[in-house]
Amino acid sequence: MPQDPATTPPEELGPPWTLLKILRWTTHFFETKDASDSPRLDAELLLAHVLGFDRVKLYTHFDRPMGSDELASYRALIKRRVSGEPVAYLLGTKGFWDIELDVDKRALIPRPETEVLIEEALELVGKEDEATLVDVGTGTGAIALVMAKERPNLRVIATDVSEDALALARQNAEKLELDERVDFAHGDLLSGVAPEVLPVDIVVSNPPYVAEDERDEVMVDVKDYEPDGALFAGPDGLDVIRRLIPQAFDALASGGHFVCEHGWRQGDAMRELLEEAGFVDVHIRKDYSGHDRIARARKP
């Protein structure tokens, strides 16, 4: 009697491998290996990637059998996911705001929390306003590219200490046809910004802010695969931010703003550091989970 893939226990499923069977089996496998916080979603994303489908099409083709080559490709991705490799790196892309970014091990995978930073930055400049913004530690280019897309009159400069990350950001700029809107500068924090550009109106950054003593709290697919230099910043996670805040103050014009992502335990420390540097109107905004996440301040 043929198997009913909707009722057969996942561990007992076998050939022929239809899409429904393979999704149920993979979800169960990820769960038993504790490989993901979202086992079904990961299974669907990887399967859709192998087949060249969108996820909706999986649901309209549940009875479609998989070919041997497709199964081999899918199994290879499953093996890499179980080892801890992030889904975004397996897919090679990550959605952020309303753009699709190429991602790989050269830079941190953009997070939803950083979209809160985008919201804060967009409040500072109207659609018709002319202003200059520097994105410090651009990584994939996520912040710089969204700001350039959303604000056509904004001059955007993206910096990074990593040449590899800058190459990825340039790749994304070209892919999104924003390469003529964003200038890229290599250097530590703001050191790569040309003197003639200064002062600027807005400095934004998603710098490294994870404390070294929090390393054991960080998920394997983050700490073992994403670049250490984009994650960890000393004993309390503030080593980079301590250097960045005074540099941002010096780079800003009077009335300019600094917007910075930080760790959920660092809100009070951020306020203190910003006020010590001379910033005023310091505001700490919470992320979508209700945690302190974005600091915004003005240079008087």
TrEMBL record:
Residues where S-adenosyl-L-methionine binds: 137-141, 160, 206
Annotated Methyltransferase small domain residues: 127-216
Reactions the enzyme catalyzes: L-glutaminyl-[peptide chain release factor] + S-adenosyl-L-methionine = N(5)-methyl-L-glutaminyl-[peptide chain release factor] + S-adenosyl-L-homocysteine + H(+)
Enzyme class, UniProt record, top EC level: transferase
Entry keyword annotation includes tRNA processing: no
Residues annotated as domain Release factor glutamine methyltransferase N-terminal: 22-92
Record-level Gene Ontology MF annotations: nucleic acid binding; peptide chain release factor N(5)-glutamine methyltransferase activity
GO biological processes: methylation
UniProt binding sites for substrate: 206-209
E.C. number(s) listed in UniProt: 2.1.1.297
Alphabetic keyword roster: Methyltransferase, S-adenosyl-L-methionine, Transferase
CDD domains attached to this UniProt entry: AdoMet_MTases
Main function: Methylates the class 1 translation termination release factors RF1/PrfA and RF2/PrfB on the glutamine residue of the universally conserved GGQ motif.
Family: Belongs to the protein N5-glutamine methyltransferase family. PrmC subfamily.
Xref: PANTHER family: HEMK METHYLTRANSFERASE, MTRF1L RELEASE FACTOR GLUTAMINE METHYLTRANSFERASE
Name under which the protein is recorded: Release factor glutamine methyltransferase
Species of provenance: Persicimonas caeni
